[in-house]
Amino acid sequence: xxxxxxxxxxxxxxxxxxxxxxxxxxxxxxxxxxxxxxxxxxxxxxxxxxxxxxxxxxxxxxxxxxxxxxxxxxxxxxxxxxxxxxxxxxxxxxxxxxxxxxxxxxxxxxxxxxxxxxxxxxxxxxxxxxxxxxxxxxxxxxxxxxxxxxxxxxxxxxxxxxxxxxxxxxxxxxxxxxxxxxxxxxxxxxxxxxxxxxxxxxxxxxxxxxxxxxxxxxxxxxxxxxxxxxxxxxxxxxxxxxxxxxxxxxxxxxxxxxxxxxxxxxxxxxxxxxxxxxxxxxxxxxxxxxxxxxxxxxxxxxxxxxxxxxxxxxxxxxxxxxxxxxxxxxxxxxxxxxxxxxxxxxxxxxxxxxxxxxxxxxxxxxxxxxxxxxxxxxxxxxxxxxxxxxxxxxxxxxxx
Length: 400
Ligand SMILES: [Ca+2]
Ligand SMILES: [Ca+2]
Ligand SMILES: [Ca+2]
Ligand SMILES: [Ca+2]
Description:
Blueprint: H1 3-21, E1 26-29, E2 32-34, E3 39-60, E4 66-70, E5 78-84, E6 89-95, E7 102-115, E8 122-134, E9 145-147, E10 149-153, E11 161-167, E12 171-177, E13 184-189, E14 192-197, E15 201-205, E16 211-220, E17 225-226, E18 230-235, E19 246-247, E20 251-253, E21 262-265, E22 276-282, E23 288-290, E24 293-296, E25 302-303, E26 308-309, E27 311-319, E28 326-336, H2 349-357, H3 370-375, H4 385-393
Parallel strand pairs: 1-9, 2-10, 20-28
Antiparallel strand pairs: 1-3, 3-6, 3-7, 3-8, 4-7, 5-6, 8-10, 11-12, 12-15, 13-14, 13-16, 16-17, 16-18, 19-21, 21-24, 22-23, 22-27, 25-26, 27-28
Helix pairs in contact: 2-4
Residues 249, 251-252, 373, 376, 379 line the site of one calcium ion (CA).
């Protein structure tokens, strides 16, 4: 910055500061707000005065909006008030009788203002100074500025209306319509203050299944007043568990005579907002099982005339919340007659060939394939003599 400008700035700063500190003497009344038929106390003050002994002021107002009722509380020894509400005027005289002059901010009087008009009406509170004089003889006049105020009648704040909410698994979002005559809406959750909102919504994260009560009330700054409350209780709903069912072998065989177990696994099932407490398997042949892992030995198969129809296996999972919520899924599960590796409904050389081709494979090795699963006729995860024996024992057996 240029050096000269800097000095000009500093000089201006001090000049402004000096003006500020030598403030003029004022006679003033606050702006006041009141509900219809309500009343409010306002103070008429002389600000920043030195050695005052006499004050004589008049206050005029719109008498169809506001009427004045006298009160006490003058800083002066003597107070006399002449109220003429029909003319819309109050004259107030005060003076010191024997005490010394008053200094600083001095109260002339408190007055009570009664609302006699309707909401929305405003009256100016015009102050005029008849006389301000210092204590002592001769009585030196004090020059002062009169700052009037306003008196406004406003309706009280009303609570919000139409609260609605949306929930996710971990959050609640409330929206509402603000009531009239409010500057902000106070938000409480479960009775504890959380926010003063100028918006018409409040969002927060919560744990799954949380129950929260929101309470709202409007606030009017001018009146310094709250409305009544409006409340709403919201429960984050339980979300359904997801059933994921797997048959560990794609190709299964009837195992009632030559053992072959069909294995089921529901461990990929989950509950997005809790945990799974119960697994129910409906195995399609009239039998049921429970548990995250289940096994079953089929003793029947579904031949449709040209091929096998799979059993439709249902899995239902139940979550941990009361009332319990279920999710379910159904999967097809292939079951062939004992010894039928290729699923053509007959036990013959083609099945033996598959077992031969897959001989010694185990499901731990990298080359366990769909054909390995077919060849593993007893589902023990190894293609060996025990699978070959099943073919031999069931040779020329058919599914029809
Ligand atoms: Ca759940
Ligand atoms: Ca076959
Ligand atoms: Ca198999
Ligand atoms: Ca085997």
